[in-house]
Automatic annotation (TrEMBL):
Keywords: Heme, Iron, Lyase, Metal-binding, Oxidoreductase, Peroxidase, Signal. It catalyses: heme b + 2 H(+) = protoporphyrin IX + Fe(2+). This is Deferrochelatase. Transmembrane segments: none annotated. Belongs to the DyP-type peroxidase family. Involved in the recovery of exogenous heme iron. Extracts iron from heme while preserving the protoporphyrin ring intact. It is found in: Cell envelope. Residues 70-227 form the Dyp-type peroxidase N-terminal domain. Residues 239-414 form the Dyp-type peroxidase C-terminal domain. InterPro entries: Dimeric_a/b-barrel, Dyp_perox_C, Dyp_perox_N, Dyp_peroxidase, EfeB/EfeN, TAT_signal. It comes from Streptomyces niveus (Streptomyces spheroides). Its cofactor is heme b. Residues 1-22 are annotated as: Disordered.
Length: 427
């Protein structure tokens, strides 16, 4: 196990769980993982407060995996991301369901800071260990794992998953926006998993082990590492800055604002379909930022582009970051004016994107940008109209380009240890 104490003491480095040699008895697979999850669930109750939030504030702690909504949406945004989109290669519905059950059990363990299955070492010498081992000794690090289902899962060839009639109306394919230069190899996916953590090794370990568990049933389509969150769900904390040096996330939906979450982020039971109640829709966009061009741009132009000042982050004509913007005092092309709810029929979304750098572009420039992630109750009312307005007129377009895109239906939370990711979809 990685850490059972949740204290500041050094974590256990044995790399296994306490369970005896279960694999010798029941073999590798869902049964073993489910048993592991049951053990972890019992421990979790003992370690957490009744509201489940006891440990969510500090960097090494665990964020509760079970709940009405998936963790990783309204919960605090840790500083590191590993996001992966997968194609499902499982032959049929039963194979997909078993994958989701196996993943859920492993996710419950890893978010508790525990190793998968029987752990990284100490098991059968003849078999590869259940856990890959690189997170042994590391704390839970506020790891959250959030799953989503892409449109292509519902349109699989021959309807092999039996999901043709289950696609939510709101899970639309995103239209092509002016200026898009999307790379198919960085777009789409049947499934996605968003792993957020304070420690990058913990996030990478989680995605790697889910991919490993899914061997033969899924293939990674694309993935994205992120650092330096560019939005937060905790407005009382210092607002992070993006790679253009501006405070980003000033007017985000707060994780504690239940009215705004209910109105703008969670799918209501009335909206349907039933299996999405309490879920959300995620838009992921890889947006390249022309760092070198930006760095040669005057401060005045930079501030005009956003409609906020660079130091304080205050809107044009205002003194403090959180003062209400007066939109008419901003240029009609400014990013904040165009993206503001008052310019978009009240539309809001919960942003929790990350900066990325992926080496160079081969032309002597940094390949860097924003991996934009936004949750909303309906993309037709939020991301699509806002991005339509931005793509037409935003002064920021001179400095950015959208190069990857995906949309996912994010189901509600896993209620308890007997529940699994997406169960309602298959009921
Ligand atoms: C379609 C939605 C959005 C995309 C795409 C987007 C890209 C993008 N944004 C920044 C930097 C900032 N954005 C800011 C505010 C802001 N942006 C969006 C939406 C998209 N941004 C919204 C809804 C808002 C909030 C508007 C409001 O209510 O006032 C800001 C200002 C600070 C803040 O409020 O967060 C910055 C800075 C970049 C660099 C970027 C693409 C690379
Ligand atoms: Fe923005």
């Amino acid at each position: 196990m990685r850490d059972e104490t949740h204290s500041d003491e050094p974590a256990d480095t044995t790399g296994g769980t306490r369970a005896p040699s279960r694999r010798a008895v029941i073999g590798w697979g869902g049964a073993g993982l489910a048993l592991g999850a049951a053990v972890a669930g019992t421990t979790a109750v003992a370690l957490r407060g009744t509201d489940g939030t006891e440990s969510a504030g500090s960097a090494g702690a665990a964020v509760p995996f079970h709940g009405a909504h998936q963790a990783g949406i309204a919960t605090a945004v840790p500083d590191r991301l590993h996001f992966a989109a997968f194609d499902v290669t499982a032959k049929d519905r039963a194979g997909l369901i078993q994958l989701l059950k196996d993943w859920t059990a492993a996710a419950a363990l890893m978010t508790e800071g525990r190793a998968v299955g029987e752990g990284a070492f100490g098991g059968l010498p003849e078999a590869p260990p259940d856990d890959t081992g690189e997170a042994v000794g590391l704390r839970p690090s506020r790891l959250t794992l959030t799953i989503g289902f892409g449109p292509s899962l519902f349109t699989a060839e021959g309807d092999r998953f039996g999901l043709a009639g289950r696609r939510p109306e709101a899970l639309v394919d995103l239209p092509k926006f002016p200026g898009d230069n999307l790379d198919p190899a960085r777009s789409g996916g049947d499934l996605c998993v968003q792993a957020c953590a304070d420690d990058p090794q913990v996030a990478v370990h989680a995605i790697r082990n889910l991919a490993r568990i899914g061997f033969g049933r899924i293939a990674i389509r694309w993935s994205q590492l992120g650092f330096g969150k560019t939005s937060s769900t905790t407005p009382d904390a210092q607002t992070p800055r993006n790679l253009f040096g501006f405070k980003d996330g000033t007017r985000n939906v707060a994780g504690t604002d239940t009215a705004a979450l209910d109105r703008h982020v969670w799918v209501s039971p009335e909206a349907g379909p039933d299996w999405m109640a309490g879920g959300s829709y995620l838009v992921a966009r890889r947006i390249a930022m022309r760092i070198e061009t930006w760095d040669r741009t005057s401060l005045k132009e930079q501030e005009d582009v956003f409609g906020r000042d660079k130091g304080e982050g205050a809107a044009v004509g205002k003194a403090r970051e959180h003062d209400e913007p007066f939109l008419k005092s901003m240029l009609p092309t400014s990013h904040v004016r165009l993206a503001h709810p008052d310019s978009n029929g009240g539309a809001r979304m919960l942003r929790r994107g990350y900066s990325y750098t992926d080496g160079t572009d081969g032309l002597g420039r940094l390949d860097a940008g924003l991996f934009f992630l936004a949750y909303q109750h309906d993309v037709r009312e939020a991301f699509i109209p806002v991005q339509r307005a931005l793509s037409r007129a935003d002064a920021l377009n001179e400095y950015i380009q959208h190069v990857g895109s995906a949309v996912f239906a994010v189901p509600p939370g896993v209620r308890d240890k007997d529940d699994w990711w997406g169960r309602e979809l298959f009921s």
